[in-house]
Design goal:
The protein has five helices and 17 strands. With 259 residues, the chain is an alpha+beta fold. The protein folds into two domains: 114 residues, no CATH class; 109 residues, DNA Polymerase III, Chain A, domain 2 (Roll).
Length: 259
């Protein structure tokens, strides 16, 4: 399959990617000015047009109408004007077709839609799929409610009089979760996988620690710059490399693009 030309930032024009998939110019597709293409997938036509979306952001808008003796399915989705790779471009289309076409019918010719098969093999390149996978890999562990209740009481005492410069370090070695400050440590048994890095958060951010714990096991997790303890979120958490004397690492997140 021919590769699209790379943009200066390393991305690929979605339009060129579509041409490599077999899309052809189609003046019958709105806006009828030559800025649209389509491809015949055997049982329906998938059209693509460059236009601004409702937020006035330029996108490539896809439309189609699938009909069979048993069902009708309308296809409608947008793509950004550039993608990170040919594979991601194919995956973007494949993901939406998989969601919008009837699952029990052969909706297109495999010969005419080879790029769809390519996309199905590379769904993990999609930003929202990557973000979901990153969320599942986030640092987390579970603490028995009785232990967490004791730990929170001790934390409240240790955090009294905290100033802006004070930091709390959080670490988990697959057995013990610890919260530590300049001259104190609050350990508690916990279950989960070892955290790759320690977490630091300003002590003054740990206000309003949960007073009521409803679950038997309390989840402690890190996502983006937030520390979650049960149903409470505390902002300002950052991973710290234990082997580089406190160097701050990127937060646990990925690109937040939506389908």
């Amino acid at each position: 399959m021919a590769q699209g030309e790379h943009q200066p930032d390393g991305t690929i024009s979605t339009w060129l990617a579509l041409e490599s998939f077999g899309f052809q110019p189609d003046k019958s597709v709105f806006p009828n000015d030559g800025s649209a293409m389509s491809i015949d997938l055997g049982s329906f036509k998938l059209s693509a047009a460059r236009m601004p979306n409702l937020m006035l952001v330029d996108v490539v808008a896809f439309t189609g109408l699938y009909r069979s003796p048993r069902t009708i399915a309308s296809i409608e989705f947008d793509m950004p004007t550039t993608v990170s790779s040919i594979e991601q471009g194919a995956a973007w289309i494949a993901w939406h077709l998989q969601k919008q076409l009837p699952s029990r019918e052969t909706a297109f010719s495999l010969k005419q839609a080879a790029f769809v098969l390519l996309g199905l093999k590379h769904l993990d390149t999609l930003p929202w799929v990557q973000r979901a996978a990153s969320y599942e890999r986030r640092p987390r562990c579970w603490v028995e409610r009785s232990w967490m209740r004791q730990a929170l009481r001790q934390l409240c005492k240790n955090l009294e009089g905290a100033v802006a410069e004070d930091m709390v370090t959080i670490a988990f070695d697959s057995r013990i979760l610890t919260f530590s400050g300049r001259d104190w440590v609050v350990p508690m048994p916990a279950k989960g996988e070892t955290w790759v890095s320690e977490i630091q958060i300003p002590a003054v951010n740990l206000t309003s620690l949960p007073a009521r714990l409803n679950d038997e096991d309390i989840l402690v997790s890190i996502w983006d710059d937030g520390l979650c303890i049960g149903n409470r979120l505390f902002k300002g958490a950052v991973p710290v490399d234990k082997d580089t004397h406190g160097e701050v690492l990127p937060t646990f997140t990925t690109t937040d693009s939506q389908p």
